[in-house]
Every structure is written in C-alpha cells, then in structure tokens.
Specification:
This protein is of the alpha+beta class. 32% of the residues lie in helices and 24% in strands. The protein has one domain. The termini are far apart. The structure holds zinc ion.
Amino acid sequence: MREACFCGWAGDVEDREPVYAGDGEWGLRCPNCGHLDLLHWLPEGAKRGTLEGAQRRWNARPQPAPAPVWRVVASRQR
Ligand SMILES: [Zn+2]
C-alpha cells in the first residue's frame, strides 16, 4: 500500500516507523518530517495488519554500521 505524507514523502505505509502513541494507540511516523499518522482512516482490521507489517519491516531493516570497537568494549564493562 502506497502512502504519501503532506511533507512530500511517499513510500509504502509499512516503511514508516511504528511508534506507540499512548492510550493503546499505535501510529506510523513519517521518516522525513516525523508526522505521526494514527491510521484512523483505516478500518480496525487493516490498521492492525498494517502496524504488524510495519513492525516486521522495522525489525528487519538494515542495521546501521557497527559501533566503533571502543564503544563495544565500553558497554561490555558496564
Ligand atoms: Zn512527512
């Protein structure tokens, strides 16, 4: 499902970051402007599926470059 944000960003709905909005509500954050879409425009079932898809995609996203060795060492000492 394609989605566009008012800031001009466009991409898959699931490519946005799933964010807990409080009150049992989840939303998807635009990677460009940070706008939080609570998906109220989607029926409940579709909303849940979309959020699950986004969560899966978010967890499977390419990881940033590994931290420099000194940082890894420092965190192991804690
Ligand atoms: Zn945006």
